[in-house]
Amino acid sequence: MAGFFINMIADTPDSIQAYRMLALKGALKLESLGMRRSHGQSALGIVNALGIKARTAKAALPLFEAKLRQEGILR
Fold first, then answer.
1. Most buried of 5, 17, 72, 75 (most Cβ within 10 A)?
2. What is the pLDDT of residues 3-32, one digit of tens each?
3. pTM here?
4. 3-class DSSP state for residue 17?
């Protein structure tokens, strides 16, 4: 199996916010590997605005994942 898909229906404000945070985690992971967003603010900038203070995406990723676990979004 090449990959797996998780079916998620975001139909409440809380689930929409959780989906947004998971998408932001993915963008932050890609930034830590060297990719950049083409439009708008960087994922690191968005994460910093959420209260995670880190200078690099690589440093911010484990802090952001810990925050998501604390909020119950990640296991």
1. 17
2. 666 677 889 999 999 999 999 999 999 999
3. 0.84
4. helix
